[in-house]
Amino acid sequence: MSASTPKKNSFFGGAAILAVSVVVVKLIGALYKVPLGNILSDAAFADFNTAYDIYALLIIISTGGLPVALSKMVSEANALGRGNQVKKVFSLALAAFCILGTASFCIMAFLPQQLADLMQDSHAAYSILALAPAVFFICPMSAMRGYFQGHAQMTPTAVSQVIEALCKLVIGLALASAFKNAFEDEAMAAAGAILGVSVGCLLGAIYMYFCYRRHSRAQPKSSDKPEDSRTILTTLAALAIPITLSSSVIALTNILDNAILMGRLQDALKLSLDDARTLKGVYNKALTLYNLPSSFMVPLTASVIPHVSAALKMKRRRQAAQISETALRTTALLAIPAGVGLFVLGEPIIRLLYASTDVELAGWMLSVLGVASIAVCFMLVSNSILQAHQMVALPMTTTVIGCALKLAVGYVLIGNPDIGIRGGPISTVVCFWIIALLDLFIIKRTLPRSLSMGRVFLKPVGAAAAMGAAAWAVNGLLTKAFLALKIFVTETQELLPDGTAAVGLSRTGTALAVFGAIGVAVIVYFALILVTKAISKEDLSLLPKGDKIARILRVE
Known about the structure:
Blueprint: H1 5-39, H2 42-63, H3 66-79, H4 83-110, H5 112-118, H6 125-150, H7 155-182, H8 186-218, H9 229-267, H10 273-290, H11 292-295, H12 298-313, H13 317-353, H14 359-388, H15 393-414, H16 423-446, H17 453-492, H18 500-531, H19 537-541, H20 546-553
């Protein structure tokens, strides 16, 4: 066994822990967003997401680059056995986080109506105010997450994410229902739903504090002399600012994109504010599902930077290259089938989850966004690889190019009466595919050992294409079968002339058709991955219990 093996197991072990937490958090999120989308009207759902877009921008400005920079510096100091350096880096980073969190809180708490008007959705002010505490509490929590990720300990981050999600689910849905019944203004229901996020951030921060306290007390004393504060802050800023700017570009683009969308719907297409909010709410429901595949990249992006950085610091370039390529190959194996699944089953999924919305429009948008979701996943992981190799400015450049195209394409298409809000998903596809292709091109040219096009793309693309065809065929066949059964029940059911039995059967049929198609798709894809050897024994050996998994699956 090579000396690098522990590092590899640490990388994929940490990724596995975060992967499990992401699955749990996303399941909780589905239990939150799906009923919430049915509790709130499309217009109120738009208010909810408008506030969230502002929150996301301020969160990225406050925490976007610092956790990554912190985890990188902590990882490097740990690799060299510099315990006092770790402590000083964290204390300075925590102070910076708290200052930024306080500033962001004040912006949202004291200027909610101005921010809502800027987004051309005046009804979102209540939701913006309800989110203000969250932007403060998440800052120290993010500092502590960066600290633990730098120590290759992902469990505290994972547990804190679950705490956040559970609070959002339980408290958010309860307050949404209560506020909907208590207030005539439907925007208050959206504010109630989003207040659960603030409570979740508070409890998550408290949990992370106790984890940090316990961990720091258990650390052995170190005799190293830490760098001076100015040097540490300069290094943190040099790493964090480009990453923050790169991340902020996308968040700022979302702000501008939504403002353009609302403005073009009202000005160019002459829709009322309520009609524009309703259309945006339909779009937001498709966006909620489109974001799912990229969320599963969090374990990879969180683990790539500290582990590749540590490998490079120890002059283990082959190990860094292997981790980078395996991260890209894992991205392909996960992202491509997920995007194909959304593309093929867009309308059936919307019909199943959001039957009260405009199913045809939302389904079309989700299918288009499925194509974009693949690019988003590659962009996130590619950016992490480039950042880990000290190329922090390049991701910002490619992101600016893609986002500028998104705004331009969106402005033109949304203002076209024949296209309207459908221009939003189209511009998203253009944006993220441009960014992803540019990032992959840079990696291929500058880090040739980290990317083999054949190993990364060819086999997953072929398997996903076959999987998509199978899912489309199974869903179509099952839908027709249940439709025929529905007609039979409608014609023969004399006891329920109002058609109640037929309607219930239709909903059950939709669910069975969707889940049946997904089940067949998973089997087909998994079988093809094994048959084509898209994943190797070497890849599995990097996972916890990977050798045992390889033997069970007979992967050589």
